[in-house]
Amino acid sequence: MQSGKVSDTPLEFIVEYLSKAKEIADGNPNIPQELTNNLKKALDIASGLDGYLEAMSSQESQPLAELYRKTMDHDWQKVHEEGTTLFRLPKECITGHLEGQVLKTLVRICKARRILEIGMFTGYGALSMAEGLPEDGRLIACELEPYLKEFAKPIFDKSPHGKKITVKTGPAMDSLKELAAAGEQFDLVFIDADKSNYISYYKFLLDNNLLRMDGLICVDNTLFKGKVYLQGETDENGLALRDFNRFVRDDPRVEQVIVPVRDGISLIQRLPWTSAGKESKNTVTPDEVFRGAQGKSILDRLRLDDRVAYVTGAGQGIGRGFAHALGEAGAKVAVVDLDREKAEKVVEELTLKGVQSMAVTADISKPDDVQRMIDAILSKWGTIHIACNNAGVNMNSASEDTSLEEWDQTFGVNLRGTFMCCQAVGRVMLKQGYGKIINTASMASLIVPHPQKQLSYNTSKAGVVKLTQTLGTEWIDRGVRVNCISPGIVDTPLIHSESLRPLVQRWLSDIPAGRLAQVTDLQAAVVYLASDASDYMTGHNLVIEGGQSLW
Ligand SMILES: C[S@@+](CC[C@H](N)C(=O)[O-])C[C@H]1O[C@@H](n2cnc3c(N)ncnc32)[C@H](O)[C@@H]1O
């Protein structure tokens, strides 16, 4: 602890009392050396802890460091005496580096996008949490003192994350009522003002659904210098927090743990209905709609954890988009491409994101390559749950000029190759009684895209749809679903080539959505078809073309 600093947390009090005890022991020759030695050991452990935790936590950003210095250097006594602040604000109430980093980490873990802070002070906690938010995330900070909004503003303005923060001045309860009336909801709430009112804030948040399903409430100072558990305490705030901690522990709607960081942070998570709903006085129909199929919420049902997938043609374009989407949803992904270098590059991208992946080189128009691809995946991961047969080629020629070579090459990859992949992986999936096959067809299976001429492509893709329908019905009763995705015209580098660029304007006038498809427009579909959420869907052609086939 810095000299002259007032003790504020249980640990700081322990250090203070141990230091005093050691001083007494040092000055008294009658105290056994063993006692002095033990006091010293206890003091070393206690006094080193906070500093070590701070030193080992990620470094604070420059704006946060500046905010901390500015808060510490400010004359809070003076601004209060001048009547600028309603209360004399103690600078110790700042959250600081360690707690700020805890909050920021929680924001990331919860994937929070909307945060509410009750009690902003100079904004250290607010800015720490804002740093953990995504670009479109936002944080509303409630603060009684208008002066603090002005104090924090120049530093919020300097930080790239400051724009995510909106400060609402005035009593927090008024702001909470406004937010509830406006139908706002938060993923994470940090309560850090006005200890005697913690319980009212907490009740208001839960009773008015200001906290989303599974949302997290963090509450500061819930150990309150140890006063919540010390016998004979009379401190009003300490007793209020003691009641608060008990109240929350006994509330069936949530689960609570108090983490002994600094002055104690309570982590309170809103439970799904399963536990809390039992206490509900309202009549609920506890069926799968209410509880979620297999007890999972719809978003959880889209997750692909522990699944093994492959994507052919994954070195670029749609296939690369599919590989990223499946990986982000939790699957291990084999990135299959003709071009080893491209496949390895995508594997590198996935590895950076923490997705387990492998590169496989294969020409899917060759039966031996197809089998080698399946064997390589099986030998690494032992199974295949998701097969994205996406590799395809497209050549243009007027039908009267289409050569048999072009026809054979196109069909060799687009239809024969897709069939060979379906068959090879289908054998594995039928044996294990589970599998999801997703073929890439095309809008060209439905309409005749023009003005470009591409007979072999169109007919091969129509074949992919029929292949999908046939396999989808033949295999569903053995646990294997086969579906396909038909993208419209996708904005890839190819489209911007000299020869195709003039066609883009023409295509755009045929697309109700007014734009070409981006690879990212197709990603949710592949995750859906790969997940258990689509189990009743088979033989389906999922068309994603901005409405083009309807005009
Ligand atoms: C412990 S400090 C907050 C520290 C802050 N969370 C941080 O990250 O540094 C408490 C703040 O709550 C504010 N406050 C107190 N009573 C309030 C109320 N009724 N409504 C809104 N803010 C209040 C105080 O002005 C003070 O700035």
UniProtKB/TrEMBL annotation:
Keywords: Fatty acid biosynthesis, Fatty acid metabolism, Lipid biosynthesis, Lipid metabolism, Methyltransferase, Oxidoreductase, S-adenosyl-L-methionine, Transferase. It comes from Megalops atlanticus (Tarpon). Its EC number is 1.1.1.250. GO terms for biological process: carbohydrate metabolic process; fatty acid biosynthetic process; methylation. Pathway: Carbohydrate metabolism; D-arabinitol metabolism; Lipid metabolism; fatty acid biosynthesis. Pfam families: adh_short_C2, Methyltransf_3. This is D-arabinitol 2-dehydrogenase [ribulose-forming]. It is an enzyme of class 1 (oxidoreductase). CDD domains: AdoMet_MTases. GO terms for molecular function: D-arabinitol 2-dehydrogenase activity; O-methyltransferase activity. InterPro entries: NAD(P)-bd_dom_sf, SAM-dependent_MTases_sf, SAM_O-MeTrfase, SDR_fam. Belongs to the short-chain dehydrogenases/reductases (SDR) family.
